[in-house]
Amino acid sequence: LTRELLIKRITLYNIITDVLYTIVTIGCAYWLHNVWALVWGYLASSIFKLIGSFIIAPYKPRFDFDWIKMKGLWSFGKWILISGVFLTLFRHGDDLFVGKLLGVTALGYYAMAYKLGNLITTELVDAVRKVLFPAFAALQNDLLRLRKSFLISYQMTVAVGFLFSLGLALLSPEFILFALGEKWTPIIPTLRVLAIWGGFQMLSTTMVPLFRAVGKPDWWAKVQIFKVIILAILIYPFSIYWNIMGTSIAVLIAAILEVPIGLNFAQRVLHCAWRDILMPLWMPGISSIIVGVLYLLTYPVLSLSPLAHLLVFGSGIVIFYGLVLMIMDTQTKVGYWSNLKKMLVK
Question: What's the whole-model pTM score?
Fold first, then answer.
């Protein structure tokens, strides 16, 4: 279904199974009053998804061993496997390290900051990648269209990534006070760092499906290996000196260093100028700086409750970020708004 871009059917499937999971989990929580409600909820979710998958795409698997096909699949799939292994190490290795070195309390704080810093980007990244991979694969033999599609997608995800990082980094104190309460305020500095990291995650959104679509999954696997090595080198000294804040900085540095490597591979695939690759970065960057300075100058003037602060300044950040980006786009003719209109119309 993903390959055929039948996204509506997949979306309905995800919504229905998620609703059923929520109903079962809340019902079990009301009945059991313990953590087993989550366990039964996850089990029910897996059953719902299994049954639902046969309903939305009827398919009866059968055993048919074919060495030639298996060899071809393995030559491609092994790099997907390696990427997954090292991505898992990057995402969860720091949790294991923090729990072992800094203790359970620090792990709780760090896990919450990590989840919040990565929540929106994870959902966006997964959704975008599922669409871009079959789209890029269909264009793999048409370099001009593939290049244009990649650069437009990259441009949009960079703009969203910078906006998310900016908003969460600036509004972390009010968000934590409103959503979690005062006892969670120690995670604010860590959340701000991980918010920036979440934005950098968006930069790789279009690279992964590009490499896989053109038959270069090994390139992204190499990027993941490099990122894990950097994290392994930095995590111990940074965590010793700066606690979970240091752990988050190590994660951020590893994520930043992967970007130029990934962009270099993308430039080689697309045979385009570095100017085309770097152009989408500077306008959202300048917009973020301008809006960030305006926020720092204005927020001390208004004394608002956490919820009111989130509503007023959250909407203000989005509006002014969009305005600054639009003004620069008008002057430079980069095409942010024209590309956005095309995507919305389609």
Answer: 0.84
